[in-house]
Design goal:
Rossmann fold; UDP-galactose 4-epimerase, domain 1
Amino acid sequence: MNVLVTGSLGQVGSELVLELRRRHGNGNVVASDIRSDAAAAAKEEGPFYALDCRDGRQLARIVRSHNVKRIYHLAALLSAVAEARPQDAWDININGLCTVLEVAREHDCSVFTPSSIAAFGPTAPKDYTPQNTIQQPTSMYGVTKVSGELLCNYYHKKYGVDTRGVRYPGIISNLTLPGGGTTDYAVEIYYEAVRRKRYTCFLKADTYLDMVYMPDAIKAAIDIMEADPVRLRHRNAFNITSMSFSPEDQAAYIRKYVPEFEISYNVDPVRQALANSWPNSLEDYAARVEWGWNPQYDLDAMTADMLKVLSERGV
């Protein structure tokens, strides 16, 4: 199967491309991104295109020329950036998705689109937020994610496009830095623990949010697209999670391996407001039952691996 990944230079895209190429072969996985600063490196491993996902003509040409049958559509503005640039966020996140769905309809492609815990809002249950519950987000990022879920469901029901997705919590990677999300602190804290043994967090100490380690996040994206469609009662999108913690919890686990680590706080009101509107924890029973979601990392295992990898790299 030939696969296209949009937003391939982002936090998830860069690592998803590596895993897909490992599984399917370099030439069968096409990477694309609106940025081209890392295009040369990407081209060395397989095909890469500088692509604005809103450009339907170019997108269709790439799909045709590579006989693409599956699209992982990851191009989007993340939460904090989207709140600062709401019109751009709507244009990129929604008009880009509409373009991808239309090309997928015309060329018989399946589509993976990630949603987010931001799709819920302050009126949703905060603890063990159900798969199906009220979704009234108060951020532009959340609004685009709810709209994206509905668009994917529409294209599946009306046109038969095989659309699937997950609601990602915060994603923590030891390879790629995040790009403007509210949960960026949960990645930055490990880098600073290795570099300086101290970190100043932009969220309050007792702010609980769901998280997932990147290896589990990548596995979820691939597993749901390879799942038996007969088993899928839900499609867009499944709650997934593997851990819920606060910055203070995370600091405590870091001290298990770096005893002298210190954390302080300088709260960013914009990102704190976003975090306050999101769930403390998700209920992911549907994903576990319908396609076998089973994360491998908890907070302790992730912390040990993050610190080990970053120390070995000498970040």
